[in-house]
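FIELD: query
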Amino acid sequence: MHIPPFATEVYFAQYEFTTPHILCASDCETLSIAELLALAGADPAELLDLRLGYTESQGNPALRAAAAALYTGVAPGDVVMLGAPEEGIYLTMRALLEPGDPVVVLTPAYDSLLNLAEHVSGRVNRWPIRPTPGGWALDLDNLERLVAPGTRLVVVNFPHNPTGYLPTLDEFDALIDIVARRGAWLLCDEMYRGLERDPVDRLPSAADRYERAIVLAGLSKTHGLPGLRAGWLIIRDPATRDALINWKHYTTICPPAPSEALAAVALRAHEPLAGRSRALIAANLERAAGFFARWPELFDWRPPRAGSVALVGLNRPSATAYCHMLAREAGVLLLPGSCLGYDDQSVRFGFGRAAFAAALAHYERHLEAGR
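FIELD: result
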């Protein structure tokens, strides 16, 4: 069966490793294995003695227990470790959906959250986030209309990629109430959870709020470890979890042993890693605010409430054409909103990298030269 090109990854494949000044990365600054081990107080011998055999399909029990400890009411048996976070989206769609099943997806969205649902069910309603002056908002009345009787799945992502939106607790509970009254499943992508501007704004996990929630999480964004490809799903319903693991047998079978070992180390350093990322984002957002204040004729700045990214309005005829030109002529990488299913007058900025300040300064010199 045909599936649309993965626009975001196709775009990054063209530029990510050849463009020197990256301003749109969604992950946070990474670190070396040696730095990770030192931060967690881990002995390198833990890795050197690791046997490179098969691992348990559901994941190492101790690692599942460490992931479960990040939640309030989650047991280690509710956790399924993944070969990569992306795998979790595929497995969820395959385990839950049949052709014709109604699905509602919050948009714009990371490509696979939308495209895989459309590929499997063929019956997706988009729930667009609404731009407001200086920010974004959820239209819960629209969600109430879209989640009709028989809706199988609702897909959301908080903190939201690419807008950086974070609902209030009341909004989050209202959303879950709408889903629960229809008896639908909720897939909540929580890859950016822990990157709130203010810790008091942190939402409880959907896994702790709704028994039919499936939660995707991992170490790529908040912890700055995308190279580990470490992630997990929280699934509290045993029959659904078994169905999903059966699909896992047809994909990766089991997680890589080195990734599991390093993921266990990373979870021991959960707070230092997340705090490091939050501090870097906060500093970069201050720089960004000054930059956007100096270029109001070019950008419509909506500061993110959480996460490492923001969707910024761009006053150009085509953001896609502009981004390709910028990469080729200035060595600066921005992601056009069209890659994420949004309009062609927006771009995604990312604030989690240590090189952000230098990249932004280079970009501003390019803009000033154009004046």
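FIELD: remark
The radius of gyration is 20 Å.
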